[in-house]
Structure formats: C-alpha cells, structure tokens
UniProtKB/TrEMBL annotation:
GO terms for cellular component: membrane. It comes from Cinchona calisaya. InterPro entries: DNA_repair-toleration (IPR053211), Leu-rich_rpt (IPR001611), LRR_dom_sf (IPR032675), LRR_N_plant-typ (IPR013210). This is Leucine-rich repeat-containing N-terminal plant-type domain-containing protein. It comes from the Eukaryota. Residues 1-23 form the signal peptide.
Amino acid sequence: MKNIHYYFPLIHLVLCFLSASLAISTTNITTDQSALLALRAQISADSNEILAKNWSSNCSVCDWIGVTCNSRPRRVIALDISNMGLSGLIPPQIGNLTSLVLLNMSKNNFYGELPSEFAQLRGLQVLDLFKNNFSGDIPPWIGLFHELQYLDLSTNGFTGIIPPFFSNLSNLGLFAVEYNSLHGNIPQEIFNISSLVTISFVGNSLSGGLPDYMCNNLPRLNWLTLSLNKLNGSIPSSINQCSQLQVLSLSDNQFTGLIPKEIGNLKALVKLNLGRNSLEGKILILKTFNSHQLLKCCSN
C-alpha cells in the first residue's frame, strides 16, 4: 500500500479547486475593494505613500493607482503595484480578486509565504513576484492557473523543489525562478510545454541531468539559462531541436563529456555560455556569431 503522504499534493489541489469555485460565485467589486484594503492594512512600509494616500474608500477602487477594472461586470482585472517601495505580508483576502488577469508585485519587499487563497486566482495570465522576499515552497496550486502565460518568481527566498505542476500550464511562455534556494531535479514535465519561450533557473542548487529529449517539444524556446546550479551529466545532442535558441547558458554546473557538435547548428544563437564545467571539444560554427563573445563563453 502506498504511503498516504503520496496523495497529499492531490488532496490539496482538490481542496483549493473547491474553495476557488465557491469564491467565484460570491465575489463582486465590493469584495475586490475589501481585498485591496486588507492588503493596504498589511503594508508595513510605503516609502512613497502611494497606497496610504490614494487607496481610499472615498473613491472608486477602479480609480486607485495600480488598479485596472473592466466594465461589465465591474471587477478588478489587473493589479500592478510593482516598484513602489512597499513592504509587508500578503493577506488571504487577496484570493477574493477572482477576476484578476494580471498580478504584478515585483521589485518591492513583500515577504512571508504565499497564502493558499492565491489558488482562487484561476484566471491569472501574468504572475510577477520578481525581486521580493517571499519564502517557503513554490506552491503546487500554481498548477490550477491554466491560463498562465508569464510566471516570474525570481530573486526571492523560495526553498524546496520545483513542484511538477506543469501538465496543465499549456499556455506558459515564461518561467523564471532565478536566484532562490531551490534544489532537486528539474521536473521533466517542463520540457513538454511547447509554448515556452523562456526558461531561466539561474542561481539555485538544482541537480540531476537534462533529458535526452529536452528540446523535442520546445519549438519556440529562445532563452535557456541554467547557470550556477549543480546540474550534471552530458549536454543532450538534441539541443539543436531548440532551433530558435538565442541564449544558451549552462555555465557553473557539473556537466561532463563532449560539447555536442549540434550546438553549431543553432542558427539563431547569439550568446553561449558553457564555462566552468568539465566539458571537452570544440564547436563547429555554421553561421557568423559574435566570435569574441562565443569563445570567451565557451572557455573553462
């Protein structure tokens, strides 16, 4: 019999789904305003006093700085409070903004774990939390965001593994988790998201190898940066199947073996960084690269 802990992630997702379904039927523009006022109440630092002065119940929530509403039904569909010098926790009421399509909190000092009520934001297309101080695991309920196109969790304090929630994220174009404290293998499901344009996992402690088929289902990928991790094994020769690659950075890992000659077939490539591994061989270049940059990046 399988250990019951095996089923915990699935149970958690089901509960989040049910919670989100109930919330959608009861929320409105008044609920949205209350959710944002709850967020304002959790702000411990507002260096420019934008929220303190502008977010007031005396005027329509749709007129608040950083807030965008649609017309029918009247709901908050975008919240962009990036680079406002804000600090504080994220309250659970944020999950009541169930019509959100865009949530950008980047370049602030928000901290703590993401509340589970975030799972109710199932219409999100953009989730940008870049450069804050969020901590804890990357929550598996992100897998509920079927419409998600842009996910940036970089430069935070996330720990644990990258959860394998990607089978439902068929619209994802950007996935970045640079400079966190993540470990474990890269989930194989990532390499089956054909919509991906950017994968950026620089500056973690990810380990394990890259699958031989890694580029077979990534026809749009143009940015792959995995530097400053603990990845090992060989670089797959199928790398040339990522034919749109412009940036390939695998430096500062533990890769071994020969540099695949197929890298020379990447005609769109403009930046290559393989340094500080244990690789051997040369690349036959089949197009005109920026040669001084290429040679510098390939050297150990």
